[in-house]
Amino acid sequence: MTIDETKLTEFIGTFVGELGTVMHAATVVIGDKLGLYRAMADGTPVTPAELAERTATDERYVREWLSAQAAAGYVEYDAPSGRFTLPAEHALVLADDSAPVFIPGALQVAGSLWKDEAVITEAFRTGVGVGWHEHHHDLFHGTERFFRPGYNANLVAEWIPALDGVEAKLLAGARVADVGCGHGASTIIMARAYPNSTFVGFDYHEASIEVARKAAADAGVADRVTFEVASAKDYPGSGYDLVACFDCLHDMGDPVGASRHVHATLAGDGTWLIVEPYANDRLEDNLNPVGRIFYSASTCICTPASKAQEIGLALGAQAGEARLGAVVTQGGFTRFRRATETPFNLVLEARR
To answer: 20 to 30 Å CA-CA from 204: which of 8, 78, 155, 182?
Structure first.
């Protein structure tokens, strides 16, 4: 085998960058948990001692942490004064969990993959699935924190208005089922926006339902929002004006069976809203930075989750519109379209 030395050197350089990213990710999670970024969000330059005092942490650890942030370009360092500054643009990403660009939740998810690595490695050998409930709890909390900012930015402002006639129903008063609701972020966002409507969130993961119930109470919407433990193929009720599935259809073992159940529980003129990770239909068109994130997550989370269930269709997080459309039409729906999209989301609408 002939080795191209230039190509080898370039790849080693790429790997060094990747290694730095992976190792630095742990410091981002630490900074998020300890409130270090939030304590710098006002843009005031700080010394390690000042930041340690603000956050009740140890100065020596904070000094090393700030040095890592400066080396990564997350904070700016002024050598003459020995002070560090978090730029306003970076603060939006790192310190404001209400901002649509807030990202530390994604690294919490990534960290959970390392904690579950041994289990996933063994699953490769045996071919068995690994259920969502079997993962480290950082996955559940990180997923909610990662997706919630995008839902806050887009769900009410862009996605629901893109559906045919749905917003008018919600404003007037509709019945909504949020299937695979997790910690209930999407359900609560809709409930706040549409006070005349009632909402029920379903998820098979009991621990997530408990978190969702508390979140609804804290948000003051528990009078119109309930959460129940149920799967996508057997959740109760009928005559729903809207059924929503946010970033979960591809995780299901039998998404066609779920599609049939959604079809059976919708009102005659009801709508199924399906939000999925953005993907093109061909692998070669997904070989990009976003595709890398989703394929990696799918390898360790989504595909194992599906294989742990009946059928185990394992669509994966990069299923694409065509495969998702086939699942929807096999469930009995006759109308299916892409309502809108973002760089990270496909927003799909199904009707009878």
So the answer is: 155
Summary mean pLDDT of the chain = 97
Give me the DSSP letters along 164-181: SSHHHHHHH--EEEEET-
What mean pLDDT do residues 289-311 have? 97
The domain spanning residue 32 has which CATH number? 1.10.10.10
pTM summary value = 0.93
109 and 83 in a common domain: no
CA 147 – CA 346 distance, rounded (Å): 14
For residue 1, name the pLDDT band (cuts at 50, 70, 90): confident
Beta strands 198-203 and 225-229: pairing type? parallel
pLDDT in tens, 47-95: 999 999 999 999 999 999 999 999 999 999 999 999 999 999 999 999 9
Q: Within this chain, do residues 112 and 76 fall inside the same structural domain, yes or no?
A: no
Q: Using an 8 Å Cβ cutoff, are 132 and 205 in contact? A: yes
Residues 135 and 196 in one domain: yes
Residue 157 maps to which CATH number? Answer: 3.40.50.150
Task: Domain of residue 181: give its range.
Answer: 104-351
As given in the structure block, the two tokens for residue 31 are: 């900074």
Overall domain count for the chain: 2
Dihedral pair phi/psi, residue 214, rounded to 5°: -65, -40
Segment (H or E) for 277: strand 266-277
Regarding whether 145 and 25 lie in a shared domain, the answer is no
Q: Two tokens at 178?
A: 């949020």
